[in-house]
Amino acid sequence: MKKLLLFLSLLPLLASGQSESISIFLDDPHTRYANIGVYIRDLRSGEEIEAYRKSNAIPPASVMKILTTATALEIMGEDSCLVTVLEYSGKIDNGTLNGNLYIHGYGDPVLGSAKQGQTFLQTWAKAVRDTGIKTINGDIVADVSYFNGDALNPAWLWEDAGNYYAPGIYSLAYMDNTMNVILRSNETGTIAKVLYTVPEVPEIEFENHIRCTSIQEDGAYIHGMPYNFKRYLVGAIPSNRGQFGVRGDLPNPGLLLAQHFTSRLRQAGITINGKATYISEPNLMPRTQLYTHRSTPLGEIVVQTNQHSINLYAEMLYRLLGARLGTPCTLYNSEKMVRNYWRNRGVNLMGATIKDGCGLAPQNAISPESLVDILTYMSASSNRDAFYESLPVSGRTGTLRSLLAGTELEGRVHAKSGTIAGTKNYAGYIELPDGRRWVFAVMISSAIGKSTEIKNVIEKYLIDVYRRNR
Question: Domains (ranges, CATH) in the chain?
Fold first, then answer.
């Protein structure tokens, strides 16, 4: 009877020409009732290896970064750099600037990041001193007006706002827009004590409800809105751990940058008679450019974005795409730019819902077929090497470090992963021993169980398809 029921369950697959590999998903309790979409195609011949509901629009989670980074590479080029410009208003008279000094941000996501460091501030101070400025009778102003006022994407969930993975998006990023709140973990049942933040944020104010419990992992969250220095700490952390760090976003990274730059200017012997501040709306006051800071090449930023799935970087690249249609950059123009680019290259995104560039918005949806078409296009692009090298490798690097480790597919899959509750996706390329390359997307949402359990089912599926078709 069981064999008969299994045969009957496979009849729709057999009738539609699907391989029995799909039954791995349909028979497993974690994925049986999930929304599943699969598409695997031979890159050279165009032969369809696997297809199951390939046109279904499924929440991509961080696989959305494939769409964003591919578009950014194509439109902007891997060697392009993003700029931050020092400008001043007023005039310099006998070593005194009678006006403001501006830090004008144009969307560099890695300024002052952990990888890039803080040495640029010394270079900036030297550039100001070399101009002959010894005294500034004005303010040090962070200008974040290049992006519009949607510092928090309206499609993101409130529960994410203020956490490190959902930072405010400003045209001036600084230190990955992230702070580490250092707590003291005490006895079980007590409230953790806030000790300090790294970096120090002078204006920060906490309402702390984080409790020390018997859990073994970080269960704390930080909530807050852009430009607002009130942060709510909720959840739990392990008890009796001593100092314990919880990451959240910087309420106003541009202002913190202006404060740090003010300190560095004073260390360089320049007198500042004003204050550190910021503006979020354009002003028409005439300015003179003093110095232009250039980021690392876009190709390197894309590597960081995809290898480590950094939402901030992807979201800033998405906003910058919108700048091609007009400034201040808007989310509407970003979506329009992405859709127009791929429509003009024959990729159908009609069924896709695009709300952000990083995949954090739960409303996002895209089909496996659309992802495979984009990946296929990128394999023949002049930016193919930069894009391919940005993707994590199974069992080796980035977010794929644990995927397929110790199997025959270790080192053979170059792909982007995407994970949110009940959702696990992978899209990229599979290298075969004979030199062939498959392009694929496996997408599962509304699944039951932990992320690792869903991943295990996907691993079984990919190995089965590989063994049947290599």
Answer: 2-78+299-469 (3.40.710.10), 81-296 (3.50.80.20)
